[in-house]
Amino acid sequence: MKEITQELLNSFRAPAFPGSFFLSFEGIEGAGKSTQILKLQKYLEDKNFRVLILREPGGTQFGEKMRQAILETKNEITPLAEAYLFASSRAQLLSEVVLKELAVPNTVVICDRYIDSSLVYQGHSRGLGVAEVLNIHNTFPLNLVPHLTFYLRIDAETSEKRQKIRNAPKDYFEAKGIEFYKKLVVGYDLMAELFPNRILKLNADVTMDAMTMTITEAVNKLINQNKNSDLEEDI
Ligand code: TYD
């Protein structure tokens, strides 16, 4: 199995577009990502940002086809095949949408799932290896990571209960059961340790409003830091 070296980690960077930000939300099914994303969108639009919400896999015509192909498959596919499918949808999304949108000043792109989903689902839980998945992404533009990632943490049992209430047909990953979900939680916790500056881990034992507040505070801090560094460059 490949190793996660500092050199490998250093090749991942947030895109540098003045005044624009790239954010992502992560967590297992039922963590409440969609609700928090919509609240953040409203908050940022009230601050006069252009906000674009994208989902992975998907977000482009090609990506949506890929999404269908993988989530609706009834056959087991290998973790390596999964990793490349998600990475190809991501590469297309970056080139076709994310980079172009971020080039417009005052834009925030929010991704519902991004690279950490691949690191956790394919790398950790499906056993491909986190280093292997990082290596697959070690080429521009796949080596671009968000400025900030919000990891909404719930446990596997809570996820299972919420999936039962929703009662929707199970997709490829949902059908894998509770043991798989337990591994996902461990995987996400590991990613929060591996990327402590980028990933903000939020425990779901607080109210929705308290969580929204923590998220908006973190985004504000990011925006202000960026303003200050612009000022430093001007001096
Ligand atoms: P989706 O319905 O979008 O999940 P959710 O509603 O929980 O966000 O389905 C996407 C599924 O694909 C989800 O189970 C996570 C998985 N996935 C990966 O395994 N790797 C990836 O890189 C991505 C983006 C998603």
Ligand set: thymidine-5'-diphosphate
> In CATH, what is the homologous superfamily?
P-loop containing nucleotide triphosphate hydrolases
Secondary-structure element order, N to C: HEHEHHEHHEHHEH
**What is the total domain count?**
1
Looking at the structure, the CATH topology is Rossmann fold
Largest sheet: 5 strands, parallel
CATH class: Alpha Beta
Please give the count of helices.
9
Integer-rounded radius of gyration: 17 Å
**Poorly predicted ranges:** none
β content, as a range? 5-15%
End-to-end Cα distance: 48 Å
Describe the secondary-structure layout:
Layout: H1 6-10, E1 21-26, H2 33-46, E2 50-55, H3 61-71, H4 79-102, E3 107-112, H5 115-125, H6 130-136, E4 148-153, H7 156-166, H8 178-194, E5 199-203, H9 208-234
Parallel strand pairs: 1-3, 1-4, 2-3, 4-5
Helix pairs in contact: 2-9, 3-4, 4-5, 5-6, 5-8, 7-8
Bound molecules: thymidine-5'-diphosphate (TYD).
Key features?
54% helix, binds thymidine-5'-diphosphate, alpha/beta, Rossmann fold, five-stranded parallel sheet, 5 strands
Describe this structure in words.
This protein has helices at residues 6-10, 33-46, 61-71, 79-102, 115-125, 130-136, 156-166, 178-194, 208-234, and strands at residues 21-26, 50-55, 107-112, 148-153, 199-203. The chain is α/β, with parallel strands linked by helices. It has one domain (6-229): 3-Layer(aba) Sandwich (Rossmann fold). It has a 5-stranded parallel beta sheet with strand order 2-3-1-4-5, sandwiched between helices. The radius of gyration is 17 Å and the shape is globular. The site of thymidine-5'-diphosphate has 13 residues, from helix 5.
